[in-house]
Prior knowledge:
Blueprint: E1 15-17, E2 23-30, E3 36-42, H1 47-50, E4 52-55, E5 57-61, E6 65-72, E7 79-87, E8 90-94, E9 99-100, E10 111-113, E11 133-136, H2 138-141, H3 170-175, H4 177-183, E12 187-190, E13 194-196, E14 204-210, H5 217-229, E15 233-238, H6 248-256, E16 275-276, E17 279-280, H7 299-316, E18 320-323, H8 331-344, E19 349-352, E20 369-370, H9 373-385, H10 390-403, H11 406-410, E21 413-415, H12 424-427, H13 432-443, E22 448-452, H14 480-495, H15 498-501, E23 503-509, E24 515-522, E25 525-532, E26 538-543, E27 548-551, E28 557-559, E29 564-569, E30 574-579
Parallel strand pairs: 11-12, 11-22, 12-15, 15-18, 18-19, 19-20, 21-22
Antiparallel strand pairs: 1-2, 2-6, 3-4, 3-7, 5-6, 7-8, 7-10, 8-9, 13-14, 16-17, 23-24, 24-25, 25-30, 26-29, 27-28, 27-30
Amino acid sequence: MLLEAVYHRPRLNWSYAYDENTIHLRLRAKKGDLSEVFAWVGDKYAWDQTKELIPMTVFASDDMFDYWECESVPPFRRLKYGFLLQKGKERIWMTESEFQAERPLNPYRLFEFPYINRGDVFAPPAWVKDSIFYQIFPERFASGDPGLDPENVEPWGGVPKQDNFFGGDLQGVIDHLDHLTELGITGIYFTPVFAAASNHKYDTEDYMRVDPHFGDTETLKRLVDACHERGIRVLLDAVFNHSGSTFAPFVDVVRNGENSVYKDWFHIRKFPVHSENGIPTYDAFGFVREMPKLNTEHPDVKRYLLGVAEYWIKEVGIDGWRLDVANEVDHGFWRDFRKVVKQANPEAYILGEIWNESSPWLEGDKFDAVMNYPFTEAVLDFFIRGSLDSEGFAHAIGKQLSRYPLQASEVTFNLLDSHDTARLLTLAGGDKRIMKLAALFQFTFMGAPCIYYGDEIGLEGGEDPGCRKCMEWDMAKQDRELFGFYRKLIDIRKSHPSLRTGTMAFLEANRHGSKLAYERRLGDESVIVLLNNEDTAQSFHLNVEIERWKDLFTGETLRISRGVLSVKLPAYGFTVLGAADL
């Protein structure tokens, strides 16, 4: 066996408390190298009475490694453990410091999980696992109060530009909540709603004031209350990495330079503040001079922003925060942020915008989840760009599942497009069949799926600003068949707990292939998803134990023959099958 590839560490995604009584252990090994793996576990103070071998199973794989996993329920909430690795008749014991041929004589050199302290258990809000999110860009969703329109407002439905306005507001969202209820939405993520000069509002001018073109605090309260009455939770965008250039403290710095009492609220490299060759003399979001970076380590800045986070939870009852450019803010700030937010609302969802692997922020002391862009890229690479075959896609998903504790994967925010990317239908070249395949995987995978406003009725658009066009409310111009597909997909997800919290196993994923089959299982419930990401018909032949299956889209019943489930799918076809024998 290739011991150089074997890896474990007693922390992070490798050894963690899933709940107050259960510890998950994981181990990495060369793909296909080990035939069996056992965790050798026991209590360090009662080793001889409690030691046992627990079989581990491969829960994920990528192109290089298998990831083995087991769970242990220690009798005294602490664990000493090592691993027994087997390859045929070869047996190796793994301790904290070495590999050895003989079983260790005592537990002292094994790994240790010292104690499951309740306060250390990473416990994201349970409601997120069952949520269907919908992202709204307020300026482009709906206009409900023309009296709030900017002076330079343009007719609804015009060509979106970086700096134009169409008059979308919060009342418009209230007026169209029936649309979201009919679709089956249970959570809304709003891009910023606070006062700012731009149409996107990521250049905050006043964190304590709703943008006057959107409404006021009372409007936001009515919106949140109306959502809650419909079982819809509300997530607002917190832009704490940077402010806008019209933010009063920054205006003071521009005016007074080194004499400003707010000069340390920002990262100023040179006074007076200005731009040199297009680069500001202060840190900013990127090099955007209108978005100066805040010094979140400064006690006054921290006090102010944490007060903002607490205020809107208590004042209007929001259910959580999405955190913009979250990985550029110091970790100490986010630890304090979590304490403040969870004290205000223990069930609040804290979602970080990070586009890469994010395990340092998912240890239970900062975020509940991140926007799952590695998932996004894997889905687009397989279904849209064609740069991954089905085996490569399964590996990409397996690698992503291996990176985080299970409870983080269960509540991760799974999106396929947003205000920062081209729209899904546009990425799919206008082919709804391909779009549906990508959405189907999104809604049958663990984590909370999110629809970008308008995707459900066929809205198209390229990169910003094209992706930020006005919502189409003329039903004659909406793709109602696509709306029906999303509504059915959401209904299937809500009706089958295995699609939300069940295990994930790929049944077919081949090199150079475009067929994909996988099973989601929870207890006795099993759902199998078959996808044909090819422009010709393809047949599936899967060895399964359950006799009868029901197509969850059509209601048709299928039977296996001699233990084999055979299904032929048309070009870019799919089926979702639920076990019908139960």
